[in-house]
Prior knowledge:
The chain has 2 domains: 64 residues, no CATH class; 55 residues, no CATH class. It is built from 6 helices and no strands. Helix 2 runs antiparallel to helix 3. The N and C termini lie far apart (50 Å). The model has no long low-confidence stretch (mean pLDDT 82).
Amino acid sequence: MRISALQLQLFIDEYPDAVPLDAINYLTGECNYGGRVTDDKDRRLMENVLIQFYNPSIYEDDDYKFSPSGLYYAPKHTDYQGYLDYINSLPNFPDPECFGFHENAAVTKNQNETNDALTTILICKSSAGGGGADSN
């Protein structure tokens, strides 16, 4: 069962005094993504990751950051353009820390991308034949 943003907003509106973070964690982890994440260890990981994003520190602590570098955080309440400005200030190619990985993950990713690109080039290059016919 997937819930929409409107359903989530209606649910949150029923609790005007406090944001029901446990319920939002459950709705996001179990209802929206629970059917797609079938491995029990992956589900546990997803629950722990969601706890970092849905917790009271986000709006209680002015210095709460999602990443060690401090680049990723929940921006203060602003207008539409303010949110767009924050989003546009984020890097186009995020570091591995954005996803919770060690910075060495970037080395592995770059090596894999290079290998894939070179493999694709080698597959596409024409073979040198001596028959006189043009090869594609």
